[in-house]
Amino acid sequence: MLRKFTWKQLSKLHVVFATFGSVASIIALCLTIFKSNTLSKESVLGLTIFTLIFLLLIVTTFLIKVYNVFKNSLSYQYPNQTKKLSTFYKYRTDDAKNIEYEVFKNIQCKRILLTEYEHGFNWTGSIPPIIESDLQDVQQEVIKGMHHEYDKIILSLKNPLGYNDAGVMHIRMKLDDSDQRSATRLESRVEYPVEMIHFRVELRYKPKDYDRKATLSRQRINSTTSAVFDHICYINFDLHTKCYDYPLLNPEPGFFYRIEWER
Asked: What are phi and psi of 67, to 5 degrees?
């Protein structure tokens, strides 16, 4: 749903409607002159053409104003010009050293045409990841984030999305953690409403009697008072699938959500 228009935006529309009122007055004056039969055919034709051109300019201005108002409203609600519907995270390793990390994001386009998508990630290991995608083309240059900001990678869409079209963004990272310096966690930054975040952590090397629980916690994105994550719940380890699996439904925006486990 779009947010309510501000007074500033409404005032812009008010100017346009006032201009339309002026145009209506000009048209009425022209019609009065036409009925007076005091003008030649050439004068009437010239005045008609002038009125139509002037009216076309006003209609164009009106449509541009309306477009800008709605565009600004969408930009306020969706700064990245996309709406995230759901996200699926998968972390899989057979030996705690070689890791495959995948992300599937179901998004909705909130601009005229979407040709690229920016994905943020936070790999804490010492060896740079190998990044690929089954659905998009990956621009291999990683954009390094500033302090407390995620690194970013750009995905080029093979089939651009139009306004309100939905699509799936896919990222796969092959991670070398042979020195085991990475943090054993998955983290998601939730700035705006999303219907679901699904975490799946497959630890195939764990013994058959492994029963340690993972922890789900969160921290405010703009927190300046504490770097501690607040506990939400524990997640049991499934011995049959050897994984932690947790769907987080309708998480409150404005938080980092993190699942952590023992190596």
From this structure: -60, -45
> Is the distance from CB of 203 to CB of 96 less than 8 angstroms?
yes
- DSSP class per residue in 209-255: T--PPEEEEEEETT-SS--PPEEEEEE--BTTTTEEEEEEESPPSSE
Rg (CA), the chain: 28
Helix (DSSP H) and strand (DSSP E) numbers for the chain: 2, 13
The pTM of the full predicted model, rounded to 2 decimals, is: 0.72
Q: Which residue has the tokens 């990630």?
A: 121
Identity of the highest mean pLDDT range in 12-16, 31-35, 78-82, 171-175: 171-175
Q: How far apart are CA 38 and CA 50, in angstroms?
A: 18
Percent of the chain with pLDDT over 90: 57
Cα angle 205, 210, 215 (rounded to 5 degrees) comes to 95
- State both tokens at 118: 């920016």
pLDDT digits 0-9 by tens, 148-204: 678 899 999 999 999 999 999 999 999 999 999 999 999 999 988 999 999 999 999
Other beta carbons within 10 Å of 22:
10
Q: Classify the C-alpha dihedral 32-35-39-41 as positive or negative.
A: positive
Edge to edge, the sheet with strand 196-203 lists 130-132, 166-176, 98-109, 82-93, 196-203, 243-249
Query: Distance between CA 99 and CA 97 in Å, rounded?
Result: 6
